[in-house]
Amino acid sequence: MKSKITITLIAILLCAVISYGFVLSRTSQNDISYDNPDGIVGTMSLSGPQLVAEIAPGLVFKIDTGSDLSTITAEGLAILEKMGYNPRKEIYPVLGRNGVGDIQLSATRYKIDLPFHHKVYENDSTTYNEIINVIHNVDFAPSKNGLSVLGIDFLQKFKIEYQYHNKALNLYVKLPAGYVQCVDLSYSKALMTSIWLGKRYYIPISIESDENNYFIDTGLQKVGIKLPYHEVKRTLRPLYTDTVLSARGQYSALIDHSAILSCGDRGGAYTAYYYDNDEEEFAMNPFNLFTQDVLIDFIDLKLYLRPTYNIPKRKSPESAPTSQHSDSPFLVNKPKWPRSD
Known about the structure:
With 341 residues, this protein is mainly beta. It has a 9-stranded mixed sheet with strand order 9-4-3-2-11-10-21-22-12. A 6-stranded mixed beta barrel has the order 14-15-20-16-19-18. It is 12% helix and 43% strand. The protein has 4 helices and 22 strands.
């Protein structure tokens, strides 16, 4: 009797291990390739508080490192088909959080070739004139919430450059020139998170001399730095009240406009938001936090800043950033905190 129970338990464990290995092997975007891996692999213009990126005329995606999986709507599939890029439907299970933070289980996946267009500016109007690159075999789950999303399963395959003034996002596989390393990144190695499609990435940040690992979540709206309510005790300054919009809803918050923040060897005063939701307690959105060009290297686990501004090509020299932008706490050539202001 005992031997039968032992055999049954071994069989159940073996099935669990095989199933676990199957999920890990099928959900990591391992078939991605590029027509040209040198320079900018893909470029996108960003707009709106949700950081919607347009990679081709009418083809838009939310950029969300907090989403474990990449999703695409029926409308997005139709646009690609009209452009001559036919999705290949496949059947295998995927599991993870989607672009609004809900757990999504899908048995259907699409392998898609994404054409990234070059964008030029003419008299404040936008014209797409050529395809600069095609990224092949990108895995997408069908969207269940009306959002097409480029999630962390896709984004972690690249070095992601955010051009602050151009409001553009560029993808690289090789580090571009002109950046200085700011801080090292890390990712969760917990067993319970290993079945997700992408890793969960963190950056060490110290606020009022108290350091934590902050989850990198470009899905955060309005917020650069998010802390839980119980951390309000760290400051003696009067805090303002506000409401923060999240993928999970609206949350009341306390705002500290004078928080002293340090990231790597850069620091200064910055606004901190204290509020609770059902996501990570400590989180940050680098696209809202940094007021300069930033590069997030998910491949080699580093974050870089550019010492000088990248001036938008569509603006004349007299409209370029001036000294009022020098208040950024993260400009590479600025002194370390604390500052006198």
